[in-house]
User: What shape does this take?
Amino acid sequence: MESLHITEPDAEDDLYSGFNEYPSTFSTKDIEKDEILQQALRSSYGKRIGVFTSKATPGMRFGTGMSVREPMTGLQLQDSVTRPMTAVRGAGYTSQKTAAQMFDPLNQASKMHAHSLEKIDDRPEDKVRRLERKITELIDESCVFNWKGDHRSALDKAKDASSKERSLIRMQEQTGLSDSHNLDLTFSVLFNLANQYALNEMYTESLNTYNVITKNKMFPNAHRLKVNMGNIYVKLGQYQKAVKMYRMALDQVPNTHKDLRIKITHNIGILFVKMGQYGEACSNFERIMNEKPDFKAGLHAIICYFAMDDKEKMRLGFQMLLDVPLDIDDEDRYISTSDDVSSNLLLEVIRNDSLRSLEREIKRIAERSILTAAKLIAPVIEDNFTAGYNWCVEAIKNSLYAPLAGDLEINRAVTLLKQGELPQAVDTLRAFEKKDSKVASTAATNCSFIYFLVSDV
Assistant: This one.
């Protein structure tokens, strides 16, 4: 078998020789001077897509199919339409969709846009609520200044609130929101303004503001403010107008509000006393004593009976005064009856708390009313001074306020001293020596002073 003999080709037979050989002086800068190469670049082949016609710079970015911005190559097609560097957009797809191209079958994008514009423009309802909040803040500030005693500043705040409330009404009328007006806010503004006028002694302005409230039938409880108007007329000395206002308010107060009716009736009775019409005053006080007995009303009724010199009614009125219940629990609950430390601490706390202070005040008013009435009628209800005091003392002893009898006897002894009846005064005071009474020490002190004055050491 013969072997194949491969001969090496000659240098002249190399098909690719000479193509990669450049002169030693050739450089890339000479490309611009090469006319053949520049002519090739200017041909249609050189204008195809993706070929750069300018030098690349370090800051140049190449566009991709995911880029939001346009490619920064600066290339343009022959029809001057910018084309991307990828074939994605050419196929009809793009990452930059306009509002018209977005998939939004419910048209929610436009609604959201309109809603955002509406917030920027601020709806009328929002303006109304904001103004209502400002008015409420001004009323609160006015009340705080009033509490601090700065009535002038309180009035300024009340006027500012009234001005803004009128602006609120005009705004609601212009925007068609009158049906949603807050009547309670209007009532608060006007009532606070009228009250601040009265505290600043601007009674005419206060009465005018109260008239605006009471004449508006939209305010259901405005009739009660006639009591405030009556109080202003009392300060002005116009008692007839004050009585008229009180009676108008009384006619509108339901019978279920018994305490309020009694207070108004008591004011009417006091005004009749000031006007000297004691018969009318007595009728009002008697009405109170029949509905809900009260110490002040009973005392005022006795004063009217005394002014009319009606002895029988003075006795009857004093008996009615003694029948008024004290409505105070037994004081023995404040006395310690055990050695328990916790119980004693609790008693020590409640012995001087606010409830105990209120009970003391009620008891003080009761004692003062009874003793004042007894001192007033004792000298005149009987033929002589002693008989009148004896009747009052016996009436007190037979009532719930028996301990007050000793105080009345001490007062009788002092009155006898003023009249110069020394032996009777001493006998009255010495009668306490055998009695276990709280006023026994007072009687002994007075008796000792009398003996000192007569030099009976």
User: Anything to note?
Assistant: The chain has a mean pLDDT of 78. The CA atoms of residues 210 and 228 lie 8 Å apart.
